[in-house]
Amino acid sequence: MEMYSLPCGTVTDNPKLAAELWAEAFYQAKDALRRIRPVPEQLIKQAHVKDLDETLAECDKVLQLGET
Hints:
Elements: E1 4-5, E2 11-12, H1 15-36, H2 39-44, H3 52-63
Antiparallel strand pairs: 1-2
Helix pairs in contact: 1-3
């Protein structure tokens, strides 16, 4: 039986579930990158960075994908 790792660090024998969860994790990472990309320019311009704490927390969550 083939096993597939999941973003949460566990494994499953269900390839469809693994594909769905990794696709969801991919889009979470894409969203986090979209939110963090303008932050350096905003800081350089000394502009207010809206929801910086939430943005950084989202990025930290994405960085932990696949870790156990």
